[in-house]
Amino acid sequence: MKKEKNRTISQNRALHKYFEMLAQELTNAGLDMRKTLKPTVEIPWSGATVKEYLWRPIMKAQLNKESTTEMTTEDIDKVFDTINRHIGEKFGLHLDFPSVEGFLMKMRTEPKVIHSKRK
To answer: How far is CA 19 from CA 15, 16, 25, 40, 56, in A?
Structure first.
């Protein structure tokens, strides 16, 4: 697999310039984020977007901390509980926080898949 190169300094500058230009154009057109990012726009979630749009805003509001590096183990529990409760009440989704114990339990209860080697 070919390793992709990091973007160049020029590309980085251009990318951030584009962000500013687009932001200005949207603002000039009277299109704030609510008008632009409608619920009908399907944008798949990723780990990065969960962190940026769910975890970080709740962490800031609930704990007044800017970075996850500032969090204690108790802080993590608090933010997790808030998100888990909200997602559960609003969408019926409930997730356990990842743990070694949960991983081991899953390994014991899931059926084993045996792969045979073809000769």
So the answer is: 6, 5, 10, 23, 21
Q: At 54, phi and psi to the nearest 5? A: -115, -60
| 51 and 107 inside one domain | yes
pLDDT band at 108 (very low <50, low <70, confident <90, very high): confident
Contact (CB, 8 A) for 62 and 83: no
Could you tell me what percent of the chain has a pLDDT over 90? Answer: 13
**Largest Cα–Cα distance in the chain?**
66
Mark whether 20 and 59 lie in a shared domain. no
Structure tokens at 88: 């559960």
